[in-house]
Write a structure and sequence with these properties.
Layout: H1 3-19, H2 21-33, H3 42-55, E1 59-62, E2 66-72, E3 84-90, H4 117-133, E4 141-147, H5 155-161, E5 170-181, E6 185-186, E7 190-193, E8 195-204, E9 208-209, H6 219-237, E10 244-253, E11 259-260, E12 263-272, H7 275-295, E13 299-306, E14 311-313, H8 315-329, H9 347-350, E15 355-363, H10 385-400
Parallel strand pairs: 3-4, 3-5, 5-15
Antiparallel strand pairs: 1-2, 2-4, 6-15, 7-14, 8-12, 8-13, 9-11, 10-12
């Protein structure tokens, strides 16, 4: 296709995006007020299907609460095999009690869209609307994935098993991001997010009356020593040039206030940047747990679970994403971000097809958008949402037009 056709599509992307901005924001606020936990996004899924019905976009339900929609281009393909691209968003919320005081705050105590997935749904519905209206500009298929259970790292695998990537050549994903200023898009190639793994340490001590501590082995004390030792693992046993995080997120032990705990357990997460360190850390954690327990006369058992692999952007896809941002927003919207030790199950899609994961900046203290992901005060600058829809649509059109 010629330059004139490409330019026309871009101008229409911008025009439609501007026209539907208010509805994108309204969708974000609706989903923000109605969060659902991972794997149980039934009402969210039903609502998404209702939006797609209104748009006249066909879809199918998969993975219990997932939805796969499809927008097929109407342009001729000149006898060439049609391309297919997947655009993915996640739809689950977090077990967080919201404290923002917003008029559209979560209506469910203990559940909140504290990671921005409400924004992702709204932006992807906006991108779907744009692609539907511009189907005459491209050939092939834009397949939109509304994925459940990202926060528990299993949703992408379920979507893949359901055929989400069958016949797909590449995939695009994006995350609204609190560490980047509103309006900037980070699309760099290479590693962007860390390997994400999990551990649990079960401690067996000996229970005793609280007034007779010398008669038992206090599993809580043993666990507390392990927590201190695990901090030393990162600060003293790993090179400061090697990014890594070991976080204990849970510590449970004891049954009554006057009984010394005979058992306890810790759970946590490990984030690593390099493949080599990822392979080394399980044995390091096991060594610390076993030796610490032995020192106090207790026994420790470590269960280690590999989660999602690190997320890396394909070079060609990253360049295409940068072009899409520049086309619809101008080169000044291209931001720089070093990456994060957060994890994402989008990496599972990248094991199958090449793709790109874009960080969309939403930080703006002037509108209260200054808190990090997963905070009970988390909010975003909503002016970036329509931009996110436009970039996703432009990226898909560019790919389907052969760029």
């Amino acid at each position: 296709m010629g330059y004139g056709v490409e330019q026309r599509a871009t101008e229409r992307v911008k025009a439609i995006g501007a026209a539907i901005e208010s509805s994108i924001i309204a969708d974000r606020r609706y989903y923000h007020a109605h969060p659902e936990p991972s794997g149980k996004e039934h009402a969210t899924s039903e609502s998404i299907c209702g939006r797609l019905d209104a748009l006249g976009v066909p879809y199918r339900r998969v993975a219990e609460t997932g939805v796969i929609a499809s927008v097929r281009g109407a342009a001729g393909a000149s006898g060439e095999a049609c391309r297919a691209i997947a655009l993915r968003c996640d739809i689950d919320a977090l077990p967080v009690t919201e404290r923002t005081g917003l008029p559209y705050a979560s209506e469910k105590i203990g559940m909140m869209h504290a990671c921005g997935h409400d924004c992702h749904i709204a932006m992807m519905l906006g991108a779907t609307r744009i692609l539907r209206d511009l189907a005459s500009e491209f050939a092939g298929e834009a397949r939109i994935l509304f994925q459940p259970a990202e926060e528990i790292s299993i949703g992408s695998t379920k979507m893949i098993e359901a055929g989400a990537l069958d016949g797909v050549d590449t995939i695009y994903g994006a995350h609204i991001w609190s560490e980047i200023d509103a309006g900037l898009f980070s699309c760099e190639a290479g590693r962007r997010m860390a390997h994400t793994d999990w551990f649990r340490i079960d401690i067996e001590g000996v229970s005793a009356h609280g007034s007779m501590p010398h008669k038992g082995v206090d599993a809580i004390v043993v666990g507390a020593e392990m927590i201190d030792a695990l901090q030393i693992l990162v600060s003293r046993d790993i090179s400061p040039f090697e990014p890594a995080v070991v976080t204990v997120g849970e510590f449970h032990g004891g049954e009554a206030r006057n009984i010394m705990a005979g058992s306890a357990y810790l759970t946590g997460t490990v984030r690593t940047w390099s493949d080599e360190l990822r392979r080394e850390l399980p044995s390091c954690i096991e060594h610390i747990a076993e030796k610490t327990a032995h020192t106090f006369g207790a026994v420790a058992r470590v269960t280690y679970e590999e989660g999602n692999a690190g997320l890396s952007n394909d070079v060609k896809c990253a360049k295409r994403a940068q072009l899409a941002v520049a086309e619809v927003l101008g080169a000044e919207a291209l931001g720089k971000y070093r990456g994060t030790l957060s994890g994402e199950d989008f990496s599972e899609y990248l094991r199958v097809v090449p793709g790109v994961f874009v960080f969309i900046g939403c930080r703006n203290p002037e509108v209260g958008a200054s808190h990090p992901q997963h905070s009970c005060y988390y909010d975003v600058d909503e002016s970036v949402l329509a931009k996110g829809s436009m970039v996703a649509a432009q990226y898909a059109i560019d790919f389907l037009q052969g760029r």
